[in-house]
Amino acid sequence: QVQLQESGPGLVKPSQTLSLTCTVSGGSITTNNYFWSWIRQPPGKGLEWIGYIDYSGSTYYSPSLKSRISISRDTSKNQFTLQLTSVTPEDTAKYYCARGGPFSDWRYRGQGTQVTVSS
């Protein structure tokens, strides 16, 4: 069974770049037809899809965040990474990595990592 684990700093200062890594086990991120997403949940709000990288390395981002997002991967480590630039306190959220695209149920996802943007 596939398992995902997020890692990265819990506190980021405004205007800096947030960088999170997802390590996948129990399955390869290059397996055909699988999509690997980042999603987040701000305090008191629902889940928000951020973007994905697919099995071929192609990416697609949420239009509302597109100008600040980059998702990449390291197939040798079976990891994919989120970078979010110019963060503000509104980017404070619990961030998850998950298998699936923007309309998935994200059944397979990590436990999440809390990221707070504050000076």
Low-confidence stretches: none
Distance between the termini: 39 Å
> What is the alpha-carbon Rg in Å?
13 Å
List the strand order in the largest sheet.
Answer: 2-10-9-4-5-6
Number of helical stretches of at least 4 residues = 0
Structural class: mainly beta
- Please report the total strand number as a whole number: 10
| Residue-averaged pLDDT | 96
Order of helices and strands: EEEEEEEEEE
Q: Tell me about the biggest sheet?
A: 6 strands, mixed
Q: Characterize the overall form.
A: globular
Helix content, binned percent: under 10%
Oligomer: single chain
Q: Strand fraction band?
A: over 45%
How would you characterize the overall build of this protein?
This protein has strands spanning 3-7, 11-12, 18-25, 35-41, 48-54, 59-61, 69-74, 79-84, 93-99, 113-117. With 119 residues, it is an all-beta fold. The strands form 2 sheets. Strands 2-10-9-4-5-6 form a 6-stranded mixed β-sheet, with no helix packed on it. It starts with a strand and ends with a strand.
SSE layout and pairing:
Layout: E1 3-7, E2 11-12, E3 18-25, E4 35-41, E5 48-54, E6 59-61, E7 69-74, E8 79-84, E9 93-99, E10 113-117
Parallel strand pairs: 2-10
Antiparallel strand pairs: 1-3, 3-8, 4-5, 4-9, 5-6, 7-8, 9-10
